Amino acid sequence: MRVWRRAGKGDLAAAESFLRAREARAAGLIARLLVAGQVRIPSVVGPSGLWIRTGRGNSVEAAVLGLAGGLWFVQLPGGTDDAAGLAAVLEEAFRRPGFAASRPLSVIGPASSVAAFETALGLSAAHVVDYFLMERGPWHPSGTSPAPTPRASCPIDVRRAGPGDLDALLPLQSAYEKEEVVTPLRGFDVDGCKATLARSLSVELLVVSRLAGGGAPVGKAGTNARAFTLDQIGGVFVVPELRGKGIAAEMMARLLGLTAGQGRGASLFVKRSNEPALALYRGLGFSIIDDFRASYHLSR
Description:
This protein is an alpha+beta fold. Helix content is 32%, strand content 29%. Strands 1-4-5-6-7-14-8-13-12-11-10-9 form a twelve-stranded mixed sheet, sandwiched between helices. A two-stranded antiparallel ribbon has the order 2-3.
């Protein structure tokens, strides 16, 4: 019998097996469960929770992760069939003290999973952004396809960034968020922007570029979710006046070199309408594997 329920510690192995099989599609969800490289199921008394649909042999067939603040990651491979019964268990949870704050405000995942989740809960998105999900396998020195080494048409210095780069990178991060993250439902939050950047500089791989000779940063690229064997890349940004010169390609090559050096693959999602970025990522060995979606809902 297939049933939805909140996951507990006893579901650890089955949940991990399901997520490993969908790693590129579930990188953001996985990263929020990993602690020191190990999957940890959220406490059943906290405001965050992992819900799973189990089937034969107690195997996990679908999963959704809700976080305090209303951010949800959804993995429903069977679409509406997998979502059957989900609304009942979540609505019961939302009635508990403290968990109401996790009612969905943002839903992220494969487009079919997001649509099934919202249909099941009777949600109507106020703003939707559709992407292509792309994946690139790890490169190994002994392989037949060497890592690409594009060079920008203007001389730049690219290096890995660290916590000490927070102040220098904040204007660039702010510009990126204003262009790519802000939606009609979500304005720019300077404190949130700085906190996001500080976290990235501490736990993610981030590279920064400057024009040769120094000066302020002109571009950045980094991971935003580190899963089991691959890294999800995001926040690729070059100042507008220097776009089209190959800076993003050179930064990405450096970043992919860092991930490949750790034997890891890479995934990312890119807006469907962003043809220059699609061409860039295809040239770096990425292929489209699915449709992806970020859906935003009005505040409670």
